[in-house]
Amino acid sequence: MTAALAALLTTPLAGQAVVKGRITAQTGEPLGGANVLVANTNLGAVTDAQGNYSLTIGQDAVHGQQVVLT
Question: Is the pTM of this model over 0.85?
Protein backbone atom coordinates (compact mmCIF):
# COMPACT_ATOMS: atom_id res chain seq x y z
CA MET A 1 0.00 0.00 0.00
CA THR A 2 1.35 3.40 -0.93
CA ALA A 3 -0.05 6.37 0.90
CA ALA A 4 0.33 10.10 1.12
CA LEU A 5 0.09 11.37 4.67
CA ALA A 6 -0.57 14.90 5.87
CA ALA A 7 -0.75 15.51 9.60
CA LEU A 8 -1.82 18.60 11.48
CA LEU A 9 -1.17 19.18 15.15
CA THR A 10 -3.48 21.25 17.34
CA THR A 11 -3.84 21.53 21.10
CA PRO A 12 -7.50 21.29 22.19
CA LEU A 13 -6.70 20.50 25.84
CA ALA A 14 -3.69 21.13 28.05
CA GLY A 15 -1.26 18.27 27.56
CA GLN A 16 -3.22 16.85 24.63
CA ALA A 17 -2.61 17.04 20.88
CA VAL A 18 -4.78 16.07 17.94
CA VAL A 19 -3.09 14.43 14.97
CA LYS A 20 -5.27 14.53 11.86
CA GLY A 21 -4.56 13.36 8.37
CA ARG A 22 -5.84 11.81 5.18
CA ILE A 23 -4.57 8.58 3.66
CA THR A 24 -4.63 8.29 -0.12
CA ALA A 25 -3.30 5.90 -2.75
CA GLN A 26 -0.78 7.07 -5.36
CA THR A 27 -3.76 7.68 -7.63
CA GLY A 28 -5.19 10.18 -5.14
CA GLU A 29 -8.12 7.94 -4.21
CA PRO A 30 -8.90 7.93 -0.46
CA LEU A 31 -8.17 4.74 1.46
CA GLY A 32 -11.11 4.07 3.75
CA GLY A 33 -10.74 1.44 6.45
CA ALA A 34 -6.94 1.80 6.75
CA ASN A 35 -5.46 1.33 10.23
CA VAL A 36 -3.32 4.22 11.49
CA LEU A 37 -1.13 3.33 14.47
CA VAL A 38 1.37 5.35 16.50
CA ALA A 39 4.46 3.15 16.73
CA ASN A 40 5.32 1.69 20.14
CA THR A 41 1.97 2.73 21.67
CA ASN A 42 -1.54 1.31 21.85
CA LEU A 43 -2.92 4.39 20.05
CA GLY A 44 -4.60 4.08 16.71
CA ALA A 45 -7.53 4.96 14.48
CA VAL A 46 -9.27 3.69 11.36
CA THR A 47 -9.77 5.98 8.38
CA ASP A 48 -13.29 6.90 7.29
CA ALA A 49 -14.60 6.45 3.73
CA GLN A 50 -12.77 9.64 2.67
CA GLY A 51 -9.47 8.42 4.13
CA ASN A 52 -9.56 10.85 7.08
CA TYR A 53 -8.42 10.00 10.61
CA SER A 54 -8.01 11.82 13.92
CA LEU A 55 -6.06 10.79 17.03
CA THR A 56 -6.03 12.61 20.37
CA ILE A 57 -2.80 11.85 22.20
CA GLY A 58 -0.58 13.30 24.91
CA GLN A 59 1.74 16.00 23.58
CA ASP A 60 4.78 14.08 24.80
CA ALA A 61 3.83 11.22 22.46
CA VAL A 62 3.82 13.48 19.38
CA HIS A 63 7.51 14.34 19.02
CA GLY A 64 9.47 11.93 16.88
CA GLN A 65 6.82 9.20 16.71
CA GLN A 66 6.28 7.07 13.65
CA VAL A 67 2.83 6.50 12.21
CA VAL A 68 2.31 3.01 10.80
CA LEU A 69 -0.27 2.38 8.07
CA THR A 70 -1.76 -1.07 7.64
Answer: no
